[in-house]
Amino acid sequence: MDAMDYAEKANEIFVLSDSFIRIKELIDDEASTIDDISDVILIDPALAATILKLANSSFFNYPGKIDTISKAVLVLGITEVYNLVIAYFTTKAFKSISASAEFLESFWEQSVDCALMIKYLGFKLGVPKAERLFILGLLHNLGELVMQQFQAEQVEMANQIGSKELPWNKQQEVFGFTYADCTAELLKLWQLPYNLIEPIRFQNEEDFQYSTMETKLLYTAKRMMQLNRQCKSHAQEDVLTREKLTVLSLQQDAISEANDYCDMERLGILAVLNPSAAMIY
């Protein structure tokens, strides 16, 4: 089986709700209004509460209080609220996965760290509306959850990384594809926007020549995160070269700054999106 085969199996189990589909239809419909979108969000109280919590968090750093969904859409913009909707329904879709609490806690911590790091890099480099990058980091590795559902023993094997191995290369060796490949196929089946799928599909691409800025940032943020996780024993240069940092006009201190930002924001995001993972803090 290839990445597409596993994604198709996952799509039968991990389903985005009807509310998500309706919100997506409204956002795609130019005739819909803010009130139309807000009304559908309000049908799901847990979704509405999650959006308001995140909108009022230090993540967005909005100076006033956002106390209605209509105001959230107006202040943050339709695209950003849509990203929050995707984040909420994605975490909800995988609630039924067959995996230990420890595995899931580690997975969501890594995903949130990558999401915070890519947002930080975007902000540091002056990328417009850098908050929108967060969703790329959060979703970038969903393929690992897919493979955990169907091939848990092989996932354990793929996640045993030697000091000279890289996670994505080990995944290729074990499965014949990477978690990134499987993630991209699932997001395609979920009919998520291409501007989310493309950076995730090519997050391991070493040649930056044809990569978009979002792809380069995800490539970099993921490796920065992995230096704290599976690649703790690696030399930095083996995971993220100075050459790649230079291409993005990043100095070495960007890594430590991004780590500091993660340490400040991680708990708040986990507490909203995945409270069980936040409890270990």
Automatic annotation (TrEMBL):
<dbReference type="InterPro" id="IPR052340">
    <property type="entry name" value="RNase_Y/CdgJ"/>
</dbReference>
<feature type="domain" description="HDOD">
    <location>
        <begin position="13"/>
        <end position="206"/>
    </location>
</feature>
<protein>
    <submittedName>
        <fullName>HDOD domain-containing protein</fullName>
    </submittedName>
</protein>
<dbReference type="InterPro" id="IPR013976">
    <property type="entry name" value="HDOD"/>
</dbReference>
<dbReference type="Pfam" id="PF08668">
    <property type="entry name" value="HDOD"/>
</dbReference>
